[in-house]
Automatic annotation (TrEMBL):
One of its GO terms (molecular function) is DNA binding. The lineage of its organism: Bacteria, Bacillati, Actinomycetota, Actinomycetes, Micromonosporales. Residues 364-414 form a coiled coil. Residues 156-271 form the Recombinase domain. CDD domains: Ser_Recombinase. It comes from Micromonospora cremea. Residues 2-148 form the Resolvase/invertase-type recombinase catalytic domain. The keyword Nucleus does not apply. This is Site-specific DNA recombinase. PANTHER family: DNA-INVERTASE FROM LAMBDOID PROPHAGE (PTHR30461), SERINE RECOMBINASE PINE-RELATED (PTHR30461:SF2). Keywords: Coiled coil, DNA recombination, DNA-binding.
Length: 501
């Protein structure tokens, strides 16, 4: 009989017999019964909960090479599967395909119903054992987290497990932690998440899995509290015995910087999360005179790419705020290069030699988050006691309340200042900043950072005018574009004009 040897080593425990020992036992069984081993399906670091058909080695044998063997033989039934449902399905498949399933160390014979029943009972016990192992592993990890130790698994990006005093702790990774700090500092400085990803990828600074950075993977790092040294599980911050965030490592990002990043990402909204390469330069700052946003529409004709800005109100059924009965805006599209050049040219003509002042978020001294966590922990502790759910005795309960109450009083006594924005001198002119931006996404982010910068596409030619809204207009010139610049830049232009008058 042709035998396919099945070997599996679980990633959940080190108690399993080694692959070498499993192969040796199966080989002796085949020799004893006069069978020939025609191949091996060796799945290492694979959980017993994985279906046999989905395993990297065994799966292809079952799906594509079933004609090459007559029996599947493993050291024990649990090497084939630790899920009763999966094992029962495999037995049904074996019956239909005239195959035998055997164990080299257990007396099972799947050629009759009684033998199949015995095999299923063994598989059931294997599943119970798997669940028990999983519970022990999870319970052990919880206890390690409570002690400030690392319970195993993939460490969060920026950290590495280090053996300390017979256990494991997380410490900042010498290569990854600087990447996290760079991501944080660049986003705070105004760079888009996509531009940060491209910069890291271009320099070969990849993710933990050696994959290129994407917006979603970068957002996970920037949003995660693990960079503060706090323990997370499935996106939730784990708490200590007092109900406060559990610290498991040294922070690699300062809390104030982490708050800055959250503020920047919140202000940018969801648009950047889904932005891809080829974003329109004026998306978000370009508007039709009807009030609707402009979007870019591209197409190919005679092998040439054409791009236009189109009013979003042109779609049938789209009503403008001023004309709810209007079936759609009639404003004609404009070639994207023309509108881009007009907008940027106007901006640089008026403000290009002014120093660019970066708007930077300065977090105040606020303890509201931690105070809220302490108050919630106090509330939960009292509720647990009132409902009889508190796990300790009265003394431990009172000690917990005392610690939390003292922490609450200390936080309430600390000074509180409001968050604010401040303008920071950069030493570069607006033109120098613009010329130094390499991509459309970065330049678009720069325009979005200029509060109240607005480009308007008109249906009819507009009169020449200054870039300041509300000032006298000149004669009509045939142009359909007007540009408004931010108030602070208007003031700088006026001050410069007054000095040179």
């Amino acid at each position: 009989m042709r035998v396919l040897g099945v070997v599996r080593l679980s990633r959940e425990t080190d108690e399993s017999t080694s692959p070498e020992r499993q192969r040796e036992t199966v080989t002796k069984w085949a020799d004893l019964h006069g069978h020939t081993i025609v191949g091996w399906a060796e799945d290492l670091d694979v959980s017993g909960a994985v279906s046999p058909w989905e395993r990297p080695q065994l799966g292809p044998w079952l799906r594509e090479r079933s004609g090459e063997f007559d029996a599947l033989v493993a050291w024990k039934v649990d090497r084939i599967s630790r899920r009763l449902l999966h094992f029962a399905s495999l037995l049904d498949w074996a019956t239909e395909n005239k195959k035998t399933v055997a164990s080299a160390t257990e007396p099972i014979d799947t050629s009759d119903r009684f033998g199949r029943l015995i095999a299923q009972v063994l598989a059931m016990f294997a599943e119970f054992e798997r669940d028990a192992i999983q519970e022990r592993v999870l319970d052990g990890r919880d206890k390690l987290r409570e002690a400030g130790r690392w319970g195993g698994g993939h460490p969060p990006f920026g950290y590495q497990p280090v053996r300390v005093d017979g256990g494991w702790r997380l410490e900042p990774h010498p290569d990854q932690a600087p990447i996290v700090r760079e991501m944080v500092s660049r986003v705070i400085a105004g760079a888009s998440v996509l531009s940060v990803c491209r910069s890291l990828n271009d320099r070969g600074l990849l993710t933990r899995n050696k994959a290129e950075w994407t917006a979603s993977s970068a957002f996970r790092v920037l949003r995660s509290r693990t960079t503060l040294g706090q323990a997370e599980h499935k996106g939730e911050v784990l708490k200590d015995a007092d109900g406060l965030p559990r610290r498991i490592a040294e922070p690699i990002v300062l809390y104030d910087d982490w708050r800055r990043v959250q503020k920047v990402l919140d202000d940018r909204g969801k648009a950047e999360k889904v932005r891809t390469h080829g974003a329109a330069l004026l998306l978000g700052v370009g508007f039709c005179e009807c009030g609707q946003r402009l979007y870019r529409q591209s197409g190919v004709s005679s092998g040439k790419l054409y791009s236009y800005y189109v009013c979003s109100g042109r779609k049938r059924g789209k009503r403008t705020e001023d004309s709810p009965e209007n079936p759609g805006c009639a404003n004609k599209p404009i070639a994207a290069p023309i509108l881009d050049d007009a907008a940027v040219g106007s901006l640089l003509l008026m403000t290009g030699d002014l120093e660019f002042q970066e708007k930077r978020f300065v977090p105040g001294e606020s303890h509201a988050d931690e105070l809220g966590q302490v108050e919630q922990a106090l509330k939960e502790a009292r509720e647990e006691w009132d409902l009889g759910l508190y796990g300790g005795d009265r003394q431990s309960y009172l000690e917990r309340l005392t610690r939390l109450s003292e922490r609450k009083a200390k936080l309430e006594a600390m000074p509180q200042t409001e968050d604010r924005w401040e303008m920071v001198h950069t030493g570069e002119t607006i033109r120098e900043m613009w010329d130094g931006l390499a991509s459309v996404e970065e330049r678009r982010a720069f325009l979005l950072s200029l509060n109240d910068f607005r480009v308007t596409l008109h249906a009819q030619p507009v009169r020449t005018r200054s870039l300041f809204p509300g000032t006298p207009s000149g004669e009509a010139t045939g142009g359909r574009v007007s540009v408004d610049i931010p108030h602070d830049l208007q003031q700088q232009v006026l001050e410069r004009a007054a000095r040179t008058a």
